[in-house]
């Protein structure tokens, strides 16, 4: 029995999860999210960490869990055994120019508000920290250590036995001090596929360069949006399903902990070639499951 168990654990530990920034309003009582539900159902071996973000956070009174459409949509998603819903918070009061300057009382209030979703029937499993630091300025290591400890250990929170913590600095930087805090994931590359001149508007929210964080692969997430047209003369790849397959395989082979590719921004998931259904299938297949 023991060797079989070890093999199973090893396989689970090396699979690349889906990390889906779900910034789309759940219209039709969550009906607009049905392609995501279909992808979860069709790929049961794939674990999907799904970031819920009503209003740059959990939303105030009347928003988020108070909105019947959000309540219905997130309940339906959370009912899938391979979905882990995580709540969005951010650390910057100036759109990322300064990190870790949201007052402690405010960011912990947002985390506590996410926990109230659990009481109201939506299993939130942890927190996605956006505008996370890219260097050690502004006492950010202490801030992120305190925040991680709070999310994982505060007795008033109900995110389950092992709360998920994801940092999103949105790019490479001086990240080792943050890997040392042992979050589940750091989004060390958030970039776009297409060439800058074809980017923009609702279709992309693209920085134009970035590199893989090669160390710490299992705690690293790679998000690629704007998967359309082609990616410039240097690589000369067209955004086809075949290229998607190759790129996703590359991510999995590097032992990256989680990934997401999509064609449009994080508000539309059915546009091809990187629709949610295709991405989930390609990733599940690349995982060998
Ligand atoms: C982190 O928590 C410690 C202990 O409560 C506190 O002294 C320190 O000021 C906090 N640092 C930040 C940056 O929040
Ligand atoms: C880019 O790829 C296309 C199709 O494979 C090929 O025809 C073209 O010569 C390539 N261009 C460069 C600059 O490599």
Write a concise keyword list for the protein shown above.
single chain; 289 residues; alpha/beta; TIM Barrel; 8-stranded parallel β-barrel; 8 strands; 31% helix; disordered N terminus; binds 2-acetamido-2-deoxy-beta-D-glucopyranose
Describe the structure.
This protein has eight helices and eight strands. Strands 1-2-3-4-5-6-7-8 form an eight-stranded parallel beta barrel, surrounded by five helices. Helix content is 31%, strand content 17%. The two termini are 21 Å apart. The longest helix is centred in the middle third of the chain and has 16 residues, at 104-119. Helix 7 links the parallel strand 7 (220-225) and strand 8 (258-261). The chain has 289 residues and is of the alpha/beta class. It has helices at 2-14, 34-42, 68-78, 104-119, 140-153, 176-179, 241-253, 276-286, and strands at residues 17-22, 48-52, 83-90, 124-130, 164-168, 185-192, 220-225, 258-261. The protein is globular and about 45 Å long. The protein has a single domain, classed as Glycosidases (TIM Barrel), CATH 3.20.20. Residues 1-13 and 200-213 have low confidence and may be disordered. Helix 2 packs parallel to helix 8 (276-286) and helix 7 (241-253) packs across helix 8. The structure holds 2-acetamido-2-deoxy-beta-D-glucopyranose (NAG) (2 copies). One 2-acetamido-2-deoxy-beta-D-glucopyranose (NAG) is lined by residues 104, 139, 142-143, 146. It comes from Staphylotrichum longicolle. Residues 1-15 form the signal peptide. InterPro entries: Spherulin4 (IPR021986). This is Spherulation-specific family 4. Keywords: Signal.
């Amino acid at each position: 029995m023991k060797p079989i168990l070890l093999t199973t654990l090893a396989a689970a530990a090396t699979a690349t999860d889906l990390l889906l920034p779900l910034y789309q309003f759940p219209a039709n009582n969550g009906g607009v999210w049905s392609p995501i539900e279909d992808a979860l159902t069709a790929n049961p071996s794939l674990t999907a960490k799904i970031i819920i973000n009503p209003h740059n956070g959990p939303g105030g009174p009347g928003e988020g869990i108070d909105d019947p459409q959000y309540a219905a949509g997130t309940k339906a998603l959370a009912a899938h055994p391979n979905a882990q819903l995580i709540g969005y918070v951010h650390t910057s009061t100036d759109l990322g120019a300064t990190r870790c300057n949201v007052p402690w009382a405010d960011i912990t209030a947002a985390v506590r508000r996410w926990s109230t979703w659990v009481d109201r029937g939506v299993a939130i499993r942890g927190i996605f920290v956006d505008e996370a630091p890219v260097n050690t300025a502004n006492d950010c290591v202490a801030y992120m250590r305190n925040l991680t400890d709070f999310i994982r250990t505060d007795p008033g929170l109900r995110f389950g036995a092992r709360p998920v913590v994801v940092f999103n600095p949105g790019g490479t930087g001086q990240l080792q001090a943050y890997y040392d805090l042992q979050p589940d994931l750091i989004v060390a590359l958030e970039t776009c596929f297409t060439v800058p001149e074809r980017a923009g508007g609702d279709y992309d929210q693209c920085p134009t360069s970035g590199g893989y964080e090669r160390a710490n692969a299992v705690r690293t997430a790679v998000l690629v949006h704007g998967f359309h047209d082609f990616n410039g003369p240097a690589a000369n790849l067209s955004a086809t399903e075949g290229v998607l397959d190759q790129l996703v395989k590359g991510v999995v082979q590097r032992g990256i902990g989680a990934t997401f590719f999509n064609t449009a921004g994080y508000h539309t998931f059915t546009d091809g070639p990187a629709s949610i259904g295709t991405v989930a299938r390609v990733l599940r297949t690349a995982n060998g499951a």
